[in-house]
Design a protein that fits this description.
S4_RNA-bd; Structural Genomics Hypothetical 15.5 Kd Protein In mrcA-pckA Intergenic Region, Chain A; HSP15; stress response; elongated; alpha+beta; five-stranded antiparallel sheet; DNA-binding; single chain
């Protein structure tokens, strides 16, 4: 894309894969989750090369600088060439800590409820002898 064309901020954030959908990017802009120089920016704002944005998504905090414009969504390997990640080191480490302790809701193996076999053994052990 040529640098002289206008590109909406929500479309750019979607194209570089910060957000999964363009509507999520627009909602984040409207909700004050995207800032430029400490000020909230609207989704329709034009993106320029050299702009720096602070972005809070559901999963992490970003600080990016626009290197080149990208209008269409491309592969991640291609998308990362269009911005520079300036996120402070302590924020990146916080992301790694939360990722390592991320709880999926599944119970760890061998902990908690008994397996089917263990349950049968317990039923046999707990059953009164006159029932058998």
């Amino acid at each position: 894309m040529q640098n002289t064309e206008k590109l909406r901020l929500d479309k750019y954030l979607w194209a570089i894969r910060i957000f999964k959908t363009r509507s999520q990017a627009a909602t984040a802009c409207d909700g004050g989750k995207v800032k430029m120089n400490g000020n909230n920016v609207k989704a329709a704002r034009s993106v320029g090369i050299g702009d720096k944005y602070e972005i809070r998504s559901e999963s992490r905090k970003w600080v990016i600088e626009v290197v080149s414009l990208l209008a269409n969504r491309v592969q991640y390997a291609e998308a990362i060439k269009h911005y520079v990640d300036l996120t402070p080191e302590e924020d990146q480490q916080a992301i790694q800590r939360t990722a390592s302790s991320f709880h999926t809701g599944k119970r760890p193996s061998k902990i908690g409820r008994p397996t089917k076999k263990e349950r049968r053994d317990l039923d046999g052990f707990m059953a009164p002898e006159d029932e058998e």
